[in-house]
């Protein structure tokens, strides 16, 4: 498992020769090993950018990110990063089994068929190993992507709106599934989401970003004990927290 | 999979169209309104049953198909290799793009004489077939290699994929449908290149037969040869269309 230190991180994007856009400003965040962090914030607040920085898909403009004392690139090169995006990002020409074998191939490791079978079972896709992505529903594809992110026993799991494209019922179901998977593995997880309910249901701590430039407005501990059931989503405490967080996401001045 | 060209109604229309064309050809031939230049279809088909002419056409078709295939294979390999080079070393890309365009902009008919003095008359058809194939495949592959989705590339990068692995597991399979559609149009281009090459004085080939038939005013033979060229072209085109459809189902 990985502990993450994010110190004074800013990210600027060059729009054109003259203009720059400050996406993230002075982010400081310390994530404990085995912790589940949810990042929420209004659209365009830099949530995904922050995740991309941790995944070393982008580099910081200033400040440092350290994962167990190393750079994100180092973790990535050791193939210890698991990621699932909003788009399921499965290779369309490969079967589910072959898609799950891809991280092994990339890492130059022998393909662990047993592990692939276990993971497909874990995400509830047993029996669909030979199916192509297009033959599966959106929810099933997303499960496959999550199974793939767990293939190499990552130290860190990054989830960028993994259920954003799903309908509400499937999404809730996937949240329950994800909690079950996470409890089995207890691996450090960062989830970027639009959904306040999803964040409260899944996270140990919720990081609220405010927009333009993105900075941390608030960090909140989620008080509910685990394992959480969907019933906890109907409690008054849950609703209060959800209302509070939704309030934080609303723009300060009328847009 | 619904494909318009395989629906019964479309097939019916296609059959009607072909029958009309054949009928029109025969009528024009019989009526003689186009003079001696358009023989009847039956007269053209009779050429294939005349032993010495059939043997000549067969030998020539082998030579022409051989040159066109050579152009297809070598042009494709060169096109793929150059596209990979441009893809992996982006600094080379603008230069290679322009080189390919320039090479393609020179008409085969203009560059033919130069090629004859550079290589040989025998080899000119194959070389003139290679050039357009190279260009078409290069363009198809270079755009195919960039057609893979950025989110797939990001996913593979986070799993620690190196550039060569991105190429192998993502960009190459994603480029296959594009390569095959490039190959499909290359077939006709290779045939044109070959025939033009043969006109410059190759010892055998369908292009040579056409020229000789023109010189001797053997009009039915000329038509029979052209029909054969078209048949070879269309066969190749048809086979690659099937391959392309398969690749689109499989890789897109």
How does the SSE layout of this entry go?
The complex is a heterodimer of chains A (255) and B (252).
Chain A: E1 4-14, E2 20-31, E3 36-40, H1 47-54, E4 62-67, H2 72-77, E5 81-84, H3 96-107, H4 113-122, H5 138-149, E6 156-160, H6 168-185, E7 188-192, H7 196-202, E8 205-210, E9 215-221, H8 236-249
Parallel strand pairs in A: 3-7, 3-8, 5-6, 6-7
Antiparallel strand pairs in A: 1-2, 1-4, 8-9
Chain B: H1 8-31, H2 41-47, H3 51-88, H4 93-105, H5 108-118, H6 124-145, H7 150-158, H8 163-199, H9 206-215, H10 219-251
Helix pairs in contact in B: 2-10, 3-4, 3-6, 3-8, 3-9, 3-10, 4-6, 6-8, 8-9, 8-10, 9-10
Throw out a few tags for this protein.
heterodimer, A: 255 residues, alpha/beta, six-stranded mixed beta sheet, 9 strands, B: 252 residues, mainly alpha, 10 helices, 0% strand
- How much is the radius of gyration of chain A in Å? 18 Å
Helix count from the secondary structure assignment of chain A: 8
Percent helix of chain A, as a range, is 25-40%
Question: What proportion of the residues of chain B is helical, as a percent range?
Answer: over 70%
CATH architecture of the domain at 1-13 and 21-80 and 159-166 and 187-255 in chain A: 3-Layer(aba) Sandwich
Parts with pLDDT < 50 across at least 5 consecutive residues of chain B? none
Question: How does the major sheet of chain A shape up?
Answer: 6 strands, mixed
H-E string of chain B: HHHHHHHHHH
The N- and C-terminal alpha carbons of chain A lie at a distance of: 42 Å
Q: Give the spatial strand order of the biggest sheet of chain A.
A: 5-6-7-3-8-9
């Amino acid at each position: 498992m990985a502990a993450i230190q994010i110190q004074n991180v800013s990210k600027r994007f060059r729009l054109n020769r003259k203009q720059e856009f400050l996406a993230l400003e002075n982010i400081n965040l310390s994530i404990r090993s085995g912790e589940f962090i949810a990042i929420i914030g209004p659209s365009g607040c830099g949530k995904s950018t922050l995740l991309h920085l941790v995944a070393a898909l982008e580099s910081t403009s200033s400040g440092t990110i350290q994962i167990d004392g190393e750079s994100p690139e180092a973790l990535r090169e050791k193939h210890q990063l698991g990621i699932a995006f909003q788009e399921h990002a499965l290779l369309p020409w490969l079967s589910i089994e072959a898609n799950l074998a891809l991280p092994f191939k990339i890492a130059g490791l022998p393909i662990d068929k047993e592990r692939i079978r276990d993971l497909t079972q874990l995400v509830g896709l047993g029996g669909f190993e030979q199916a192509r992505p297009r033959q599966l529903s959106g929810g099933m594809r997303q499960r496959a992507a999550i199974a793939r992110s767990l293939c190499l026993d990552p130290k860190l799991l990054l989830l960028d709106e993994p259920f954003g494209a799903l309908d509400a019922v499937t999404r809730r179901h996937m949240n329950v599934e994800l909690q079950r998977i996470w409890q089995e593995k207890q691996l450090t997880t960062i989830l970027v989401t639009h959904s306040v309910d999803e964040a409260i249901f899944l996270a140990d701590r919720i990081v609220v970003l405010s927009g333009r430039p993105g900075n941390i407005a608030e960090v909140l501990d989620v008080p509910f004990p685990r394992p959480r059931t969907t019933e906890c989503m109907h409690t008054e405490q849950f609703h209060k927290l959800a209302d509070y967080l939704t309030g934080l996401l609303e723009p300060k001045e009328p847009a | 999979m619904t494909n318009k060209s395989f629906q019964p109604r479309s097939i019916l229309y296609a059959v009607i169209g072909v029958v009309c064309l054949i009928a029109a050809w025969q009528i024009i031939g019989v009526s003689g309104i186009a003079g001696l230049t358009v023989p009847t279809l039956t007269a053209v088909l009779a050429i294939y049953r005349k032993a010495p002419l059939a043997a000549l056409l067969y030998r020539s078709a082998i030579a022409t198909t051989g040159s066109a295939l050579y152009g297809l294979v070598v042009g494709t390999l060169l096109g793929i290799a150059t596209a990979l080079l441009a893809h992996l070393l982006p600094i080379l890309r603008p230069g290679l793009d322009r080189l390919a365009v320039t090479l393609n902009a020179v008409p085969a008919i203009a560059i033919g004489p130069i090629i004859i003095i550079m290589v040989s008359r025998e080899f000119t058809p194959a070389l003139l077939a290679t050039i357009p194939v190279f260009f078409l495949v290069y363009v198809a592959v270079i755009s195919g290699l960039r057609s893979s989705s950025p989110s797939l590339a990001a996913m593979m990068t986070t799993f620690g994929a190196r550039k060569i692995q991105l190429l192998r597991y993502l960009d190459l399979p994603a480029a296959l449908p594009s390569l095959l559609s490039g190959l499909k149009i290359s077939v006709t281009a290779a045939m044109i290149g070959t025939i033009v090459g043969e006109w410059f004085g190759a010892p055998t080939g369908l292009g040579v037969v056409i020229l000789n038939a023109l010189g001797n005013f053997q009009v039915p033979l000329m038509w029979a040869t052209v029909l054969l060229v078209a048949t070879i072209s269309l066969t190749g085109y048809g086979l690659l269309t099937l391959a392309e459809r398969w690749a689109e189902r499989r890789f897109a």
